[in-house]
Amino acid sequence: MKLTDKTKSIVHHILLYGPPKSGKTKLVGTLASKYKLIWFDLESGYKTLLQLPKESQENIELISLPDTPSFPVAIQTCLQVIKGTKTKICEAHGVNTCALCLKTQGAFTAVELNACDPSDTIVVFDSSTQLTASSICFVNKGQPVEYKMQTDDWGNVGKLNEAFYSHVQNAPFNIIVIAHDIDLAKKENDPKHVVPSAGSRNFSRNFAKFFDDVIYCEVKNGRHIAASSTLYSGGILTGSRTGIALENDKSGAVNLLDLFDPDRPKEEKLETPGSSSISALERIRANLHSAKGK
Prior knowledge:
Distance between the termini: 70 Å
Number of helices: 10
Radius of gyration: 21 Å
Helix content: 25-40%
Shape: globular
CATH topology: Rossmann fold
CATH superfamily: P-loop containing nucleotide triphosphate hydrolases
Order of helices and strands: EHEHHEHEHEEHHEEHEEEHH
Number of strands: 11
CATH class: Alpha Beta
């Protein structure tokens, strides 16, 4: 097949990362104004989503995976659902076809990701950092708290992560994975090398290969920034196979709809943490000018 005969895919696999409290969850949540979101919550981050309008909250199917060191359910359930086949996850424990909840007639959420329509549904995993923590606890199950991981242990964690993200890379549905950041610089004076966190240093270094777009979020000059081009910063890993540079939007209304529908009219842009701050400043300026004119 010639490249010119290849049909452009409408499916997007996005990795969005940054430091804590940099607006990651809310930025992804704003997509619920246009899309249905199937949100796998591994670290109880849903509270941020409660800031969204009620109509957006209605578009989010929340699946809580109460992952803990003694109950590393996240990696087990995520490895099952990412294959795209039919699953039935209990609301109490986040377990697929939970025997206890079947016995007690507990509530379940049916999920079949391969049946998702890319034109109206996005699957979200929040976060890769917690998923790796779950993998570590799963591999070290039965070990004492003070146990120091060995090379083989890290290898097994890498295999679990590789299995999950290989499915992400080839999934026929939209996916956004949220992650925290890590600086791989070894010494204090070394140039920074910020990448998404996903386990070992080596895995984190190559983690971005599974995704079409890698977006970095940060708070800069009093604004929430989302950057996606390879030229954003020499010390921060970003990139987009779609060629979109989110950081070039000077309106302050940057949101992820630009990636899913780059041709949409600009007036459809949603209010984001950054744009809401700018809107507030504009209202203050307008009031001041109005007061001076009286």
